[in-house]
Amino acid sequence: MSTVQKRDKLIKQWIKEAAESIELAKEESLKVEEKSARNDLVTNMDKEIEEELTNKIRAEFPEDRICGEEGFGDDLKDLKGTVWFVDPIDGTLNYVLQQENFAVMVGVYEDGVGVQGYIYDVCKDKLYHAIKGMGVYCNGQPVKSPENKSLSAGLVATNSQLMTQDQFAEYRKIAGKSMGVRMLGSAGLEIIELLKGNVIAYMASKLSPWDIAPGKVMIEEVGFKVSQFDGSEVDLLNRNKTIFSTVKAFDEIVTANSK
Ligand code: 2AM
Ligand code: CA
Ligand code: CA
Ligand code: CA
């Protein structure tokens, strides 16, 4: 079995185990803390799942390094070798307020190149994954490639800050050229919407490496684009203003932005 195949089997198993922990925790009361703001939350489950995942990765792949949201990973200064990106619960605010619309996400990169990406919609029991060069799958079934639609032909997904902060007024104009705006509150699930062809772009003002890395593998696998707002490459060591989109909409969004 190749290393990629071994990782694939284990990641799928570990993600399902994480979901089981989340299911079991439904019976207990969540411990919720604020991070950078009153709407930036972390729960005991975010921490427990990241700790479990990082322990499992380290036991099987001791040479690899980990970039995780809740601090159980390594302090990365570069992307050399094999790097795992772990977001234990993507959409924590949804997890706390809605008990749905959140995902467990894992990405694996080799020397900065995305090799494997996994996004598990826990409540819908849908595990999306991509292995570079092998297509995108949902629960093991190939996902049909989404259509390359233009900005004016589809819906645009975004995050709350783009809608509420004046510094992003330009993006509201771009969204205004689309058929309409949609917002789910989970970067991973927005990326799945793009893969399914339900939206033609997802624009978010402040995404971290673990928000971007798993979905980037999938979006690039279907030939779509991932970049910073100005069209430059995303930096997986820092936060990014990020666009995920069809090729047609990408050109329109970046051109509108550089005017
Ligand atoms: P999280 O739930 O893992 O923190 C919400 O718009 C989306 O943006 C979620 O995917 C969320 O991931 C992500 N996000 C990134 N930075 C955030 C922040 N500072 N506060 C809230 N959500 C953030
Ligand atoms: Ca968070
Ligand atoms: Ca996240
Ligand atoms: Ca998270």
Automatic annotation (TrEMBL):
<dbReference type="InterPro" id="IPR000760">
    <property type="entry name" value="Inositol_monophosphatase-like"/>
</dbReference>
<dbReference type="Pfam" id="PF00459">
    <property type="entry name" value="Inositol_P"/>
</dbReference>
<protein>
    <submittedName>
        <fullName>Myo-inositol-1(Or 4)-monophosphatase</fullName>
    </submittedName>
</protein>
<dbReference type="GO" id="GO:0008934">
    <property type="term" value="F:inositol monophosphate 1-phosphatase activity"/>
</dbReference>
<feature type="binding site">
    <location>
        <position position="89"/>
    </location>
    <ligand>
        <name>Mg(2+) 1</name>
    </ligand>
</feature>
<keyword id="KW-0378">Hydrolase</keyword>
<dbReference type="GO" id="GO:0007165">
    <property type="term" value="P:signal transduction"/>
</dbReference>
<feature type="binding site">
    <location>
        <position position="90"/>
    </location>
    <ligand>
        <name>Mg(2+) 2</name>
    </ligand>
</feature>
<keyword id="KW-0479">Metal-binding</keyword>
<feature type="binding site">
    <location>
        <position position="69"/>
    </location>
    <ligand>
        <name>Mg(2+) 1</name>
    </ligand>
</feature>
<dbReference type="GO" id="GO:0046872">
    <property type="term" value="F:metal ion binding"/>
</dbReference>
<feature type="binding site">
    <location>
        <position position="87"/>
    </location>
    <ligand>
        <name>Mg(2+) 1</name>
    </ligand>
</feature>
<feature type="binding site">
    <location>
        <position position="211"/>
    </location>
    <ligand>
        <name>Mg(2+) 1</name>
    </ligand>
</feature>
<keyword id="KW-0460">Magnesium</keyword>
<dbReference type="GO" id="GO:0006020">
    <property type="term" value="P:inositol metabolic process"/>
</dbReference>
